[in-house]
Amino acid sequence: MGLSYDYHKREPYNSWLMKHCEVLLEEANKYSNASLVLYATLEARNLLEKTEFDLMLMSTDKSEWQDLANMAKGKHGLTKSNNKYKALKYRYQTFSEAIVKVILDFELKVYDYKTSENLQTELSEYLHTYTRTPEEMEFKSDFIQNGISLVNKALEFVKSYYVKKDDGYVFGLLNFSTLNGSMKNEFELWKQDVSEDTDGLYQRLKEINDKENGGAKAKPI
Fold first, then answer.
1. Does residue 209 fall inside a structural domain?
2. 116 to each of 51, 127, 141, 154, how far by Cα in Å?
3. Domain containing 168: what range?
4. What would the mean pLDDT of 194-208 be, rounded to a whole number?
């Protein structure tokens, strides 16, 4: 569903955050306003964190969502949540890669957490600017111009995982809540496992699909 954008009404959706970052950069360039660039870097970082949080929700049962949200609030919230559920980064990504090869007859891009983390680290440099010189805070300075480039880079990175629809974006990744039966059981075991045997994971998933679905693969709608 598309989401109408209102600059003065904050919405807790990724599509709103993406549009807001774009508008902030447009205004920053229009008025040569460095403060708006700093604001855009904050919102770009929020966007990356929100994307990771949404992926975490997709990888857990709905009954856990409230506890997950409570844990994610506050300092280092996402890190604490990830440490508990072991599903956000390595576990989620490796299972996604394996199951995509097994059950899909088309390419589905798997979220790159490492790049997301690197972008968040770079954007963080713009959240604490008290050590910056007056020259660095000028709109045409390398520091501010690099900030504009960084926000655009973050936007392009996130958009590459979304499908544009109307005025918003639809997340284009596998929804783990749709897993059932043996596939779901394998996912739950993988989340709790400490093994890094991704080849073994792929073979198990392939055997399940061969046995239960005759090796059939889903096609794009």
1. no
2. 9, 17, 25, 8
3. 14-97+109-173
4. 92
The pLDDT value given to residue 74: 62
Summarize the confidence of residues 60-66 as an average pLDDT.
79
Query: How many residues make up the chain in this entry?
Result: 221
Q: Do the domain assignments include residue 103?
A: no
Distance CA 87, CA 139 (A): 40
Domain total of the chain: 1
Whether 129 is covered by a domain: the verdict is: yes
Q: Alpha helix (H) ranges present in 90-196? A: 90-103, 113-124, 142-159, 181-192
Give the predicted TM-score (pTM) of the model.
0.77
Q: Which ranges of the chain would DSSP assign to H, the alpha helix?
A: 14-31, 34-58, 65-72, 77-85, 90-103, 113-124, 142-159, 181-192, 198-213
The answer to whether 20 touches 13, Cβ cutoff 8 Å, is: no
User: Is residue 167 situated within a structural domain?
Assistant: yes
Calpha distance 55→51 (Å, rounded): 6
72-80: list long-range contacts, CB under 8 Å, 24+ apart.
78/49, 78/52, 78/53
Exposed/middle/buried for 17, CB within 10 Å: 0-12, 13-18, 19+?
A: buried
**Amino acid identity at 19:** K
